[in-house]
Amino acid sequence: MLLTSNPKEDPLATELSAQVIGTSFEQFVKLHETAVFTFCYRMLGSTRTAEDMAETAFLDVCPRFPAVSLVDVLVAARGRCRIQLRFVEYLRETAVTDIQLLFNKLPVPEREVMALRYGCKLNFTEIAAILNTSGEVVRNTLRQGRWRAANLGQASLANKNQPI
User: Fold this and answer.
1) Mean pLDDT of 61-86
2) 3-state secondary structure labels for all residues of 29-88
3) Where are the domains of the chain?
4) pLDDT tens per residue, range 5-64
5) Which of 4, 32, 59, 141 could disulfide-pair with 10, CB 3.0 to 4.6 Å?
6) CATH code for the structural domain at 105-164
7) If 0-12 CB within 10 Å is exposed, 13-18 middle and 19+ buried, where does residue 39 land?
8) What percent of the chain shows pLDDT beyond 70?
9) 128 and 137 in contact (C-beta within 8 Å)?
């Protein structure tokens, strides 16, 4: 069977053309996927997110294929990673603010013990020496602080989920 010179007139030529472009795009992806993933990973620091952003970058340039290069994919990946970083930074700021508000609602002795334990990574004996108390009091205060923080956190979440 002979193919006509105009692919629009010949459905077989159109199908073969699509297969060739699909195969060559697949080869293009295989050739550059490691470079694009590494670029995204260095920007984001997360394997899973980097894989998602690299895949999305390839999909972004796919409609322009074969007139794309590695640079085009990296530009698309940079844009996707920047959007992701802005989103993650917003969530991080919100979470830190929520934790600070919750922490400030705890009584001072519980805040002191929790700050020394989790912020300074001190053990019970070291905390007891600093606060001039016993290790058992430190342990009980920490337990009470964690329990109170959990209850405050649950109450805070319940308030956020209520309709306005």
Assistant:
1) 89
2) HHHHHHHHHHHHHHHHCCHHHHHHHHHHHHHHHHHHCCCCCHHHHHHHHHHHHHHHHHHH
3) 8-91, 105-164
4) 444 555 544 444 445 455 688 899 999 999 999 999 898 888 999 999 999 999 999 888
5) 4
6) 1.10.10.10
7) buried
8) 78
9) yes
108 CB-contact burial (10 Å; exposed 0-12 / middle 13-18 / buried 19+): exposed
Query: Other CB atoms closer than 10 Å to residue 127's CB: what's the count?
Result: 23
CATH 1.10.1740 fits 8-91, yes or no: yes
Nearest to 129 by CA among 110, 116, 142: 116
* Environment class of 80 (CB within 10 Å of its CB; exposed 0-12, middle 13-18, buried 19+): buried
- pTM (2 d.p.): 0.47
